[in-house]
């Protein structure tokens, strides 16, 4: 692996950039691996990296039906925060946040993690109660989060409309200063490069058709577009497509896949210093380093793998943006796109073992998977390597849907009555 | 914005009049108390989520207000059929929407 | 004066001038000009700076696909926008135009220093550096990078303009009114189809507007066009200009954005700036034509270098000669026609440099006839000129070797690398494309919608072909609509056909690694950036795009995608389709947020529901709070009062005498039918069979998961008739849930539900004097405690209005809720206020309601519960019918975790110091000394000052809370740790004596 | 004017609030339809969107397979309620007075259809005069009557009415501006 640095850039600038090498090879599959990870998004590539780096397991293949990083990794709005309500969630996301802070240096790849602060707006008394609960809970969990008055919120984010006459007046905000954004593609590329350097095979354009189980029920490997590949352990990290892959191993999942849309504006000079989320109004936004306003929309109402998404939802999202930030009506939407998110009944992820020996799963991140990337990858690798969960992902089991021990972040933010 | 045929109104109308209501043919057990925790969890939470034709429920909420069923291809979002609540799924052997073999030829990202 | 306007040319209005400014300097243009055509008429090419290197740039195009000539435009306060395409924005009187993305002047941009050290900024450079020291990225590097990035400045004032929406259903939508679209619309409309024809330009006609010499059906092109438009109007075709089809969605749903006023000097009162059309078409014809491709060579980005077709448009449509000594660089015959038109208008063509060995014979003859030098098998190895191109270096290519170069002086370079079918909208539908080897272009393959593609979009070149194809497709679409149709293709003379070849970057001499041949002009992506990305392992076009940002500029890759793909596929060593085409994504051109938001701005962002009594509250100075879609009176401050003071007064007045409260927002459902009781038994946790007629009961509703969803008082008005109330926010959800069970799970039950939320206005009267206030107004019901005890309901008359009268209490005081038909709500309220005068009746809002109920330990669903709370957790086990075999959610209450020890239970909390108010949401711990992260055992759900208790009190959900009664717990706050004692939730009048009056 | 629409004559449209009628939601199964029809004095239509008209200006609009909206002059409400109360023991049903639940707005004029398209996604050209449907107008559930080619009537839930009315006024100004 050619080490990246300012000096290396300078040296190559002088020699016409002749010194750069392939960041990862496009591998052909071997007949057998210790571990196969299905899905070469940042979660899957990250898990491969941590398997190699922390557990010494390098006979690993990451297999994807398309190009690495082409799924939800490259389609999200890159928000990173950890100010979740429940202890389980706060620990998982804060673990991820700890890893985010050193990720560029660890991977020797600038993932541009930018601690610019994530501010969540409260628009009614119920929001205020809910966010205050978050702030208090986070504080005692050691998670950064604080309460702002509307005026403080406006100072932190000048385009914000805090008029009392607004349809949804701002009644306050919860701010996590340590939160922010990162460059999504770079996360996948950085993990891919670091994993490949440690011996991991990255196999692109190779659809996994089924997970194959042996007579004892344990995992034997995967059938792919390039033939059967044997593996002692298989981890599924396939975002929106988890149900389909797991079904092939005869495991039915508490998941539904929904289209999720996001969009960017034309680039403008810096005008929006942080990330703002407004659940009541259904808008969240940040400004990329390129200058585009990056805006997340909601999921369409129906289950779909089409990655299309409808116009009315985008209209609603932009109306919401214009409600909270009225100065942006004349900004123009440059491009919108869709992803597929798999959603669990309690809106929390499933990371861990499955009823099938040797089969592991990482799914159900819904609309919040990007921020969890290093945490999910790290704990998944631990679970696969040791065949037992890390304490941080231990609560995120499949069994919780039977016992009722849900981690219900959605219900905890129940709508106002 | 989808176009949806309401089997009660017998009209094809914009999605804005309809509300999606989840997977179809997940019937509430007659005697829930007789079920094991696993069986009850399966009723509550397990969904087929197929990549292909999905049997699902819609409600014509800004119209006749009826719940009805539909088959829709989740890859193209195209409707295959819509039918009234209580009617069997057209042209299928099973009531629950387990994905057909062909649907499996699609894998992870 | 315009130095480059050619007399007798162009379609603009030769009448009075239109005045505008550019960077403060005054200019005059003509009605019909774009900013770019007007500036070019004055010889101004320099209009912008590029994104990364801040290189000087001029317009490349004459349409919306422009990557370079982006400007800031303004028509006064709040009407400022960045990144406007100078090539598309029409002039209007007084338009202010400013160049952007520069420090200093446009001619001397200090940030152009980036260009000097450009080798540092190779593809992906920022992924490789700026990592040390660790804290510097978001503190130092990123702010610098962000300031340098971006294009124009963001608007900074609210927008006074309006935006509109409209729905349109049409049989046939034709997108693009060039020759193919016009022919298609004509053919279909003649067959009787109901047709909508849209075009993004101010005028219909497409390429015909730039080619007046073509002859169609014996008429000059523009005469034919005028006749065609007139015929379309006669046939009733709905024609929308300045209207861009921005996205193609499911089942022929197309979004159109129509620009209505940006071109007008004085927009009429009430007119929206833009309108988004939601079109549902039975069939769609895409006739969007093709986009001309730039050629990729060193220095192809200097001002004065533009597409040949654009120069032709500026000349023929706007009467502007873009240069006096143009040089043409091409790999397609079409550029020759541009050369001929410019030459015929008086330009001296420096040379036509053709990369190909064998251009079409016809164009060579024409060139010779005009005495224009044609250099075949030649390449361009560079250009010169800082703010305007002055010359280009050309060299012969033979057997892959580049020979000796010579310099050709010129004042503009017109390039053409062939044409790309415009298939953006087709791609939105997930229609598939196939690579055509002969054309070196993607063509439409399998369609996912009921749509047709006509003309250049299918790779057909020339007017004859486009018109014939359009007519034929129009007929096909009409037949698909069930109409009889005959195709009649117009006869075209003096057609401009031709062929071409597609090249990657042009061959060059010297070190290719140092040549700067731009592919994406705006984002400053060069051919060598793309090659470097491939070398670094980016082997799919998606990776190349993301690594280099090629195709991600505001032209959405219209100029750069195909060239980028040709270079990447060459570098990878695979055919273009194997490297892939980046997905086209909506919108087709950047579209304002306002157009999407439409009417939903300001007070019309979302409905604000108001009760019939709301006007009284407003007139009496109420503060309001939003509760779901409603606004509710929150408290009624008197002069000088803050919320706390007002609420303390309202509470005291209600407990002391009588308070009046608008409860109209509560959800109400009429449940009627022979199986109404059975339905209620199955739906709610409570038993209903034995509830007597005229009696009411608190009802608790769970989700099937066993958690509390809603609650409310339910009165039985008849054997088969219940008046159900729900929470304000839960009304629609509860009705939907009930309908779901009735319609799909229990269709055998004979019971019907009707929402009566808005049929009734509801006024709650609470306090020891409530009966005294109410009694004189009631007819038909004895209100005595014996005749009408607590939890009764009756139909009677109140203040002369038919009423449903409940004796219930959410405050712990003697209480009534009076429901009257909504139109009488305000009159009822006023009658009660009048009657209550002598008891100092006090109107109170939701905050006082919350305090009074909390003093009684009554829960608010959604505040004291959060979707994870069971009836037992909330202390409501008593509300579960013990003998019931089933109700919604019952089975879930037996799940292991729901019967486990240590669940959070609702309890009271009394702080050691009664003056201390706990925050709602504050966390409860058993051990205040522990280190972070602390073990939290609960949280405060409700916390208020109680006038009745003379202190603050709170409710909290605490693990095993009921077993902790009498014990102390701790609430750590930023101000310090608060000690509190766990109590029951019956804070006030625990025995309920005050209800028994 | 950028819209070269030859079918758009001079823009005129009138918006007015109407005095309330008596309105009932009638729910009855197929087995009780005949008895309910008899009680009402008109044949309850069975096709969603059809309107039956009877004596004393009574109308019945079919909203769903077992749901009708009954309207009558305001003073006739009591008689209808009593007649159905008498019917209940023989033919169980649900008749609920909703006279106050909605308020009614009428839109008339050559541009009435255009005005309705600003909030209604349905293809209103296919709603024949004399018919009515429950549909959505800018997010609000409404009952939309097409009384004539150029006359629409909308019953809107009371608390949504000012919002809907507001949008109609915006639309009218737009049409008046000619753009």
UniProtKB/TrEMBL annotation, chain A:
Catalysed reactions, semicolon-separated: sarcosine + O2 + H2O = formaldehyde + glycine + H2O2; sarcosine + (6S)-5,6,7,8-tetrahydrofolate + O2 = (6R)-5,10-methylene-5,6,7,8-tetrahydrofolate + glycine + H2O2
The EC class name is oxidoreductase
EC annotation from Swiss-Prot or TrEMBL = 1.5.3.24
Alphabetical UniProt keywords: Cytoplasm, FAD, Flavoprotein, FMN, Nucleotide-binding, Oxidoreductase
A Gene Ontology molecular function term for this protein is: sarcosine oxidase activity
One Pfam entry for this protein is: DAO
This chain's protein is named Sarcosine oxidase subunit beta
- The record lists the organism as Hasllibacter halocynthiae
From TrEMBL, chain B:
A Pfam family hit: SoxD
**Positions of the region Disordered?**
86-109
Q: Report the record's Gene Ontology biological process terms.
A: tetrahydrofolate metabolic process
Q: Which InterPro entries does the UniProt entry name for this protein?
A: SoxD, SoxD_sf
> What does the record give under GO molecular function?
sarcosine oxidase activity
Task: Report the leader peptide range.
Answer: none
What name appears for this protein in its UniProt entry? Sarcosine oxidase subunit delta
| Top-level taxon of origin | Bacteria
In its UniProt entry, the species of origin is given as Hasllibacter halocynthiae
Automatic annotation (TrEMBL), chain C:
Q: Which InterPro entries match?
A: 2Fe-2S-bd_N, BFD-like_2Fe2S-bd_dom_sf, FAD/NAD-bd_sf, FAD/NAD-binding_dom, GcvT/YgfZ/DmdA, GcvT/YgfZ_C, GcvT_C, GCVT_N
State the UniProt keywords alphabetically: Oxidoreductase
Provide the GO MF annotations for this entry: sarcosine oxidase activity
Question: Domain Aminomethyltransferase C-terminal spans what residues?
Answer: 904-989
Report if keyword Transmembrane helix is assigned. Answer: no
Cross-referenced SUPFAM superfamilies: Aminomethyltransferase beta-barrel domain, FAD/NAD(P)-binding domain, Folate-binding domain
One family name in Pfam for this protein: Fer2_4
PANTHER family named in the record = AMINOMETHYLTRANSFERASE, AMINOMETHYLTRANSFERASE, MITOCHONDRIAL
**What is this protein called in UniProt?**
Sarcosine oxidase subunit alpha
- Species of origin: Hasllibacter halocynthiae
From TrEMBL, chain D:
Signal sequence span is none
This protein's source sits in the domain of life called Bacteria
**What Gene3D superfamilies does UniProt report for this protein, alphabetically?**
Heterotetrameric sarcosine oxidase, Probable tRNA modification gtpase trme, domain 1
This one is known as Sarcosine oxidase subunit gamma
Q: What is the lineage of its organism?
A: Bacteria, Pseudomonadati, Pseudomonadota, Alphaproteobacteria, Rhodobacterales
């Amino acid at each position: 692996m050619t080490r990246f640095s300012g000096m290396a850039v300078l040296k190559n600038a002088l020699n016409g950039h002749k010194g750069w090498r392939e960041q990862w090879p496009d591998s052909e599959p071997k007949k057998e691996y210790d571990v196969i990870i299905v899905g070469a998004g940042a979660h899957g590539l990250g898990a491969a990296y941590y398997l190699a780096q922390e557990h010494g397991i390098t006979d690993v293949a990451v297999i994807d039906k398309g190009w690495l990083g082409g799924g939800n990794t490259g389609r999200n709005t890159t928000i990173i925060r950890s100010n979740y309500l429940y202890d389980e969630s706060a620990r998982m996301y804060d673990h991820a946040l700890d890893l985010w802070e050193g990720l560029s240096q660890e991977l020797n790849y600038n993932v541009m993690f930018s601690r610019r602060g994530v501010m969540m707006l409260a628009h009614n008394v119920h929001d205020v109660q809910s966010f205050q609960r978050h702030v208090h809970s986070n504080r005692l969990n050691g998670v950064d989060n604080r309460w702002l008055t509307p005026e403080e919120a406006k100072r932190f984010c000048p385009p914000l409309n805090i008029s009392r006459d607004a349809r949804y007046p701002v009644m306050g905000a919860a701010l996590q200063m340590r939160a922010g954004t990162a460059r999504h593609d770079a996360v996948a590329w950085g993990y891919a490069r670091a994993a490949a350097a440690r011996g991991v095979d990255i196999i692109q354009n190779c659809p996994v058709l089924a997970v194959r189980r042996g007579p004892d029920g344990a995992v034997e490997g995967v059938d792919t577009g390039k033939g059967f590949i044997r593996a002692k352990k298989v981890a599924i990290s396939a975002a929106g497509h988890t149900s389909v892959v797991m079904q092939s191993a005869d495991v039915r999942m508490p998941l539904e896949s929904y289209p999720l849309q996001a969009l960017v504006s034309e680039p403008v000079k810096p005008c929006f210093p942080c990330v703002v989320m407004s659940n009541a109004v259904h808008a969240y936004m940040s400004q990329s380093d390129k200058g585009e306003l990056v805006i997340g929309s909601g999921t369409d109402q129906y289950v779909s793998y089409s990655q299309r998404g409808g116009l009315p939802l985008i209209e609603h999202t932009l109306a919401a943006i214009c409600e909270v930030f009225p100065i942006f009506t004349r900004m123009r939407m440059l491009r919108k796109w869709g992803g597929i998110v798999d959603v669990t009944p309690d809106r929390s992820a499933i990371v861990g073992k499955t009823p099938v020996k040797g089969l592991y799963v990482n799914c159900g991140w819904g609309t919040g998977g990007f921020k969890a990337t290093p945490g999910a990858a790290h704990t998944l690798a631990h679970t696969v390597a040791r065949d037992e969960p890390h304490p941080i992902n231990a609560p995120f089991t499949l069994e919780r849907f039977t016992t009722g021990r849900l981690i219900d972040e959605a219900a905890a933010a129940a709508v106002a009555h | 914005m989808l176009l949806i045929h309401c089997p009660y109104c017998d009209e094809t109308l914009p999605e804005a009049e309809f509300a999606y209501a989840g997977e179809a043919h997940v019937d509430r057990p007659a005697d829930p108390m007789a079920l094991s925790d696993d069986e009850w969890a399966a009723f509550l939470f397990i969904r087929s989520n197929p990549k292909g034709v999905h049997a699902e429920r819609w409600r014509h909420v800004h119209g006749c207000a009826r719940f009805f069923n539909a088959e829709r291809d989740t890859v193209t979002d195209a409707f295959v059929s819509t039918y009234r609540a209580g009617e069997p799924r057209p042209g299928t052997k099973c009531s629950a929407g387990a994905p057909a073999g062909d649907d499996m030829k699609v894998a992870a990202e | 004066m315009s130095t480059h306007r050619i007399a007798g040319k162009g379609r603009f209005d030769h009448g009075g001038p239109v005045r505008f400014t550019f960077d403060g300097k005054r200019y005059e243009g003509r009605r019909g000009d774009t900013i770019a055509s007007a500036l070019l008429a004055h010889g101004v090419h320099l209009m912008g700076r590029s994104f990364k290197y801040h290189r000087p740039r001029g317009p490349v195009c004459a349409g919306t696909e422009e990557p370079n000539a982006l400007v800031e435009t303004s028509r006064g306060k709040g009407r400022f926008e960045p990144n406007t395409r100078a090539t598309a924005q029409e002039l209007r009187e007084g338009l202010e135009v400013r160049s952007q993305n520069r420090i200093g002047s446009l001619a001397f941009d200090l940030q152009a220093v980036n260009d000097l050290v450009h080798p540092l900024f190779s593809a992906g450079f920022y992924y490789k550096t700026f990592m040390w020291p660790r804290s510097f990225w978001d503190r130092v590097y990123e702010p610098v990078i962000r300031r340098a990035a971006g294009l124009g400045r963001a608007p900074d004032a609210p927008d006074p303009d309006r935006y509109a929406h409209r729905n349109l259903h049409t049989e046939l939508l034709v997108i693009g009114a060039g020759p193919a679209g016009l022919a298609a619309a004509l053919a279909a409309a003649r067959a009787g189809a109901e047709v909508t024809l849209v075009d993004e330009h101010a005028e219909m006609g497409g390429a015909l507007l730039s080619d007046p010499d073509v002859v169609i059906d014996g008429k000059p092109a523009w005469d034919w066009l005028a006749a065609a438009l007139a015929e379309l109007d006669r046939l009733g075709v709905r024609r929308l200009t300045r209207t861009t089809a921005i996205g193609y969605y499911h089942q022929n749903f197309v979004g159109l954005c129509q620009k209505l006023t940006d071109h007008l000097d004085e927009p009429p009162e009430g007119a929206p700036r833009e309108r988004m059309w939601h079109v549902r078409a039975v069939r769609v014809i895409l006739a969007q034509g093709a986009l001309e491709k730039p050629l990729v060579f060193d220095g192809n980005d200097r001002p004065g270098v533009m597409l040949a077709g654009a120069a032709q448009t500026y000349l023929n449509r706007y009467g502007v000669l873009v240069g006096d000594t143009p040089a043409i660089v091409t790999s397609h015959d079409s550029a020759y026609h541009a050369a001929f038109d410019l030459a015929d208008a008086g330009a001296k063509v420096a040379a036509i440099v053709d990369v190909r060995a064998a251009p079409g014979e016809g164009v060579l003859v024409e060139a010779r006839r005009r005495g224009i030098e044609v250099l075949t098998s030649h390449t361009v190895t560079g250009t010169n000129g800082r703010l305007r191109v002055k010359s280009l270096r050309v060299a012969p290519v033979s057997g892959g070797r580049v020979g000796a170069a010579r310099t050709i002086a010129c004042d503009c370079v017109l390039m053409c690398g062939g044409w790309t079918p415009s298939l953006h909208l087709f791609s939105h539908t997930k229609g598939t494309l196939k690579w055509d080897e002969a054309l070196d272009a993607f063509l439409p393959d399998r369609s996912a919608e009921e749509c047709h593609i006509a003309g250049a979009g299918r790779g057909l070149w020339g007017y004859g072909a486009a018109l014939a194809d359009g007519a034929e497709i129009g007929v096909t679409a009409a037949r698909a609509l069930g109409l009889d149709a005959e195709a009649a293709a117009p006869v075209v003379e003096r057609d401009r056909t031709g062929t071409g070849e597609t090249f990657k970057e042009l061959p060059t001499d010297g070190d290719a690694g140092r040549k700067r041949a731009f592919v994406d002009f705006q984002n400053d992506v060069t051919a060598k950036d793309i090659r470097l990305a491939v070398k670094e392992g980016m082997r799919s076009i998606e990776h190349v795009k993301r690594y280099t940002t090629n195709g991600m500029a505001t032209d959405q890759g219209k100029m750069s995608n195909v060239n980028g793909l040709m270079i990447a596929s060459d570098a990878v060593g695979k055919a273009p389709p194997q490297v892939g085409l980046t997905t086209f994504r909506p919108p087709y051109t950047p579209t304002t947020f306002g157009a999407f938001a439409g009417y939903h701005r300001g007070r019309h962002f979302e409905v604000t529901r108001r009760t019939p009594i709301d006007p009284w509250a407003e007139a009496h100075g109420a503060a309001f709070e939003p509760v779901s879609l409603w606004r509710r009176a929150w408290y009624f401050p008197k002069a000088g009062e803050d919320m706390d003071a007002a609420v303390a007064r309202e509470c005291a007045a209600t407990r002391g005498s009588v308070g009046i409260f608008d409860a109209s927002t509560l959800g109400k459902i009429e449940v009627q039918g022979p199986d109404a009781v059975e339905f209620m038994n199955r739906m709610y946790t409570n038993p209903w069979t034995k509830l007597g007629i005229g009696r009411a009961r608190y009802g608790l509703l769970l989700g099937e998961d066993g958690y509390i969803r809603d609650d409310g008082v339910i009165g039985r008005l008849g054997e088969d008739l219940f008046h159900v109330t729900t929470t304000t926010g839960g009304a629609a959800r509860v009705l939907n849930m009930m309908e779901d069970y009735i319609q799909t799970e229990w269709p055998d039950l004979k019971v019907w539900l009707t929402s009566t939320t808005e049929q009734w206005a509801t006024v709650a009267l609470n306090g020891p004097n409530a009966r005294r206030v109410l009694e004189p107004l009631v007819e038909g019901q004895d209100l005595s405690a014996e005749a009408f005890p607590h939890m009764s309901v009756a139909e009677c008359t109140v203040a002369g209005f038919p009423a449903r009268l409940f004796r219930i209490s959410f405050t712990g005081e003697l209480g009534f809720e009076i429901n009257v038909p909504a139109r009488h709500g305000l009159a009822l309220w006023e009658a009660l206020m009048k009657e209550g005068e002598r008891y100092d009746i006090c109107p109170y809002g939701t905050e006082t309601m919350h305090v009074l109920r909390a003093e009684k330990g009554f829960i608010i669903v959604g505040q004291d519960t959060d979707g994870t709370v069971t009836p037992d957790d909330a202390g409501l086990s008593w509300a579960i019918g013990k003998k019931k075999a089933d109700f919604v959610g019952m089975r879930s209450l037996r799940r292991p975790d729901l019967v486990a020890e240590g669940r959070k239970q609702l309890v009271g909390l009394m702080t050691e110091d009664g003056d201390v108010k706990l925050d709602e949401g504050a966390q409860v711990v058993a051990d205040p000394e522990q280190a972070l992260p602390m073990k939290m055992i609960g949280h405060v759900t409700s916390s208020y000052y109680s006038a009745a208790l003379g202190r603050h009190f709170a409710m909290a959900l605490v693990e095993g809370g009921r077993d902790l009664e009498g014990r102390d717990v701790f609430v750590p706050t930023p101000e310090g740790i608060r000690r509190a004692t766990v109590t029951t939730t019956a804070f006030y009048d625990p025995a309920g004596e005050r209800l028994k009056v | 004017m950028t819209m070269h629409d030859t079918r758009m004559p001079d823009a005129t449209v009138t918006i007015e609030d109407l005095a309330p009628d008596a309105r009932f939601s009638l729910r009855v199964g197929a087995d009780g339809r005949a008895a309910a029809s008899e009680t009402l004095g008109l044949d309850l239509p069975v096709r969603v969107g059809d309107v039956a008209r009877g004596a004393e200006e009574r109308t019945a609009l079919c909203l769903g397979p077992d749901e009708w909206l009954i309207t009558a002059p305001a003073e006739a409400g009591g008689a209808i309620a009593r007649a159905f109360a008498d019917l209940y023991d023989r033919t169980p049903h649900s008749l609920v007075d909703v006279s106050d639940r909605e308020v009614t707005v009428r839109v008339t004029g050559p541009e009435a259809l255009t005005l309705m398209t600003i909030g209604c996604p349905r293809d209103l050209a296919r709603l024949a005069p004399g018919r009515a449907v429950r549909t959505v107008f800018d997010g609000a559930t409404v009952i939309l009557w097409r009384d004539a080619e150029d006359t629409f009537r909308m019953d809107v839930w009371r608390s949504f009415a000012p919002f809907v009315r507001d949008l109609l006024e915006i639309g009218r100004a737009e049409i008046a501006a000619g753009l």
